[in-house]
Every structure is written in C-alpha cells, then in structure tokens.
Amino acid sequence: MKSNKYILILSLIIVTALSNILLTNIPNFSPIASVALFSGFYLSNKKLALLIPIACMLISDYFVGFHSLMWAVYLSFALTVLMGIKMKTSSGKNVIINSVLSSVVFFLVTNSAVWLMGGFYTSDLSGLALCLSMGIPFFKYTLLSSIVFSAVLFGGFQILNQLINKYLIFSKKS
C-alpha cells in the first residue's frame, strides 16, 4: 500500500508539473508552488520533497528558459516545501491558507530579488515599494494558480486514495 501511495503522489506531481511547460502564455500561472506544498506535506523523505519541485523547475526551465533571478524562484519554492512540511493536516482550510501564503512568499522573494539586483529601481524603501507595486498585476495569476493546482493535487490525491482503498477493500472481499 505504501508503494501505491508514492506512485500516486509522484504521478500527480509529474502530471501537474508538466503543465508548467504548457501554460507559459499566462504569466506566473504555474503548478510548481502547489507541487512544492504537496511534496512537503505528503512525502516523508524531505530531501525528495525538496528535490521534486526543483527538478520540475529545472526541466521546465530548460524548455522555457533560464534567467538571472532563478535563485529567487527556486528559494521561494524551497520555502513552500517547508510550509508543506509544517502543515498539520490537509484540510481544505489549511490547503487554502498555505496556498495563499506560498503565493505571498513567491511574490515577496522574487520581487525583492528584482529590487536587490538593482538597475530598475532605486535602492531605498521607495524603490522597493515601487518594485513590489509593479509586481501586483502578476500576483493574481500566482494566487489563482496556487489555489487551483493545490485543490487539484490535494483534492485529487484524496479522491484517488479513497478510490484505491475502496478497490482494495472490494478486491479482498471478492
């Protein structure tokens, strides 16, 4: 049963992560934060939980393209894995709260990295405020994708897990 759980989890992650390559026409609409949260919550091997979203990013970035601030993107997803590890339950409320928080973390880390890089904004608090405000139009896509993909991953896992358990119980009775 434990191997079925890992096959199911990894399948959900792979299918969802592949959509990162297909959804490049919507800015910041990506499943990776949800994959990171999901991996952190469900995988007992925390190194694997961290490796999965990073590997998904590396694969999709190979096709989509790399840039100088990838470290900030990867850092935000590593922090999201930690959020998943710290989640106590996979209740709808916890998933939504942590999805929103992961979007805020991504927004703050990546936009602060743009500001720290210099060249675009003044290196004072007003420059940081301007940088953050310029990122707000993209935040809605980050937030929406995080909630949608977390619902798909966490909800899909629950549904599939119930179906598998029902099937295993049914097949034992046969």
Structure characteristics:
single chain; 174 residues; mainly alpha; 6 helices; 0% strand; elongated
- The number of helical runs is 6
Largest sheet: none
Poorly predicted segments: none
Per DSSP E runs of 2 or more residues, the count of β-strands stands at: 0
Shape: elongated
Computed structural class:
mainly alpha
Order of helices and strands: HHHHHH
- Cα end-to-end separation: 18 Å
Fraction of residues in H or I helices: over 70%
Q: Count the domains.
A: 1
Average of pLDDT? 89
- What is the percentage of strand-forming residues? under 5%
Query: Whole-number radius of gyration?
Result: 18 Å
Structural write-up:
This protein is mainly alpha-helical. The chain has one domain (2-150). The chain has six helices and no strands. It has helices at 2-22, 32-42, 46-64, 70-86, 92-117, 125-173. Helix 1 (2-22) packs parallel to helix 3, helix 2 packs antiparallel against helix 3 and helix 5 (92-117) runs antiparallel to helix 6. The longest helix has 49 residues, at 125-173. The radius of gyration is 18 Å and the shape is elongated. The two termini are 18 Å apart. The model has no long low-confidence stretch (mean pLDDT 89).
